Amino acid sequence: MEAARSIVEEVNRLTLEEQKRLLESEYSELLEDRVRVERGLTLPPLPGAVEGRVVVRFAPNPDFYIHLGNARPAIVCSEYARIYKGRMILRFEDTDPRTKTPLVEAYEAIREDLRWLGVSWHEEYVQSMRLEIFYSVMREALSRGCAYVDTCGDEGKKLLASGSYCGDRDRSVEWQLERFEDMLRGVYGEGEAVVRVKTDPKHPNPSVRDWVALRIIDTARHPHPLVGSRYIVWPTYNYAVSVDDHLMGVSHVIRGREHEVNTEKQLYVYKCMGWEPPVFIHTGRLKLEGFILSKSKIRDLLSKSPQEFLGYDDPRFGTIAALRRRGILAEAIREAIMGVGIKETDATISWANLASVNRRLLDARADRIMFTANPVEHVYEGECVDAEIPYHPERPQKRTIRVCGGDKIFIDRGDIELKEVRLMGMANVKIENGKATMISRDLDYARKKKLQIIQWVPARGAVKLTIYKPEGLKLHKIKGYAEPALKEYKEDSRLQLVRFGFIRIDKIVEEEYTAILTHE
RNA sequence: GCCGCGGUAGUAUAGCCAGGCCCAGUAUGCGGGCCUUUCGAGCCCGUGACCCGGGUUCAAAUCCCGGCCGCGGCACCA
Fold first, then answer.
1. pLDDT (tens digit, 9 = 90+) per residue, A197-240?
2. What CATH number should be reported for the domain whose range is A51-129+284-364?
3. Most buried among A70, A218, A399, A453, by the most CB within 10 A?
4. What ipTM, to 2 d.p.?
């Protein structure tokens, strides 16, 4: 004991370098390679991943547009497919025409959002087109005796809730197969028969007990937007996912934490069919500070007060379309999402963080334009000057604005009280009683006197610009004037309004511009 | 209520599985400075965290136990 203590003390007295050297020379067999993974913009290694054999999928329900939270698995999956030279699958899970009725336009809107995000996929499937496949796999499962047709109706559910089960569970395979064909033939109505997967009728989680794999939906009353009322027997999520993930060779399922119990349910299908299950990874939920992400909440707001919002891509929402419309770049979203990775804890991306990344990316490419949000007209007094304003501080291109004595210019209300300022690119002036009187054009003078350099807008040719500024649930409207150079830009341009913030031009109607403030 | 999963600075994340390179790294935010014809960007300096309590160990953010808090699930939704 004493010996051990003294040896430890001796070792501890050595510096790290000395310890390392000693280990390498005397006891190198004890050294173990411990590889440190460089993070940066890359993801942690995918458990059990083998290069060339990774197959991942993004499987949205096309009942609405996707939001930032959905983008997490989509981006992460496509990135893993890229890293491991694997395959990425896009699969639309539209197997509920009744309560989660698919939106016809959502299929293409989702593809568009994904493309914009830089997510690429190698294969695409739509589950509503694969119903026959689910039926035939079920015939096999019934034959194997690990699923059954429950014709007990509501009673079957109640029995399971109490740890018992519908007597049909114990009937013969032949009986099951015949009843299943009856279901497909339309012998039963909604709720009269379901196909259940045999699990454990006493499972601690009642929802796991013999969960429903296929049910009847009256598609005469609730037609599916893609296949109409062609089918009445529809697979549930858990069943369809298990079958498709296996058939499509998915090796890694990356999805939200809310699917943890589903994973447990799906494992019964793999076991029944003798399939090798994929690796399941559950990520935490993603929120965006100050934004509304929830599908149902957005739909709610849109239907209750449509006049208050600019649509599903209103800049106050966290849909991908909304972020795009606001002026957030796809790279910024990718960066933010790669940053949170696949952690199992919920994360709230702070707006400051996303905006900061976006600002850094935008700064390099957004031209600078002068804008006054609270324009106050002033008369310029002094000699004619040709103000040269660079489009971007890093680039040589400039525009020239000629201002002569008697010309009117707009100065922002907040800047008037500064009394003496430098009008950017133009001249140093004294501001007094609605007049801007030139002192000199000398920049050094402005530097020496530490004059504030402000933006200004010539009244002649000034462009009316309305800016929507999202703030929480509010959308402020700011009306002002921008310099004539704004007319050189088309819709969807991203600009920086000097000393105001970054904007994306949303709409141009007859010389009147509308933009959305991306962030300051 | 029952089942499950988590808890590192204001926010997010690295480290945890394989205890010592961690009096905890990075980004953002915040404070200060430099630079700059923007209050933008960039550069420099600073600020600030291992949920709590026990235990194991020479050594604990890391392993064990208990508590607290947060989240998810409990559908013939996905």
1. 999 998 888 899 999 999 999 999 999 999 999 999 999 999 99
2. 3.40.50.620
3. A70
4. 0.87
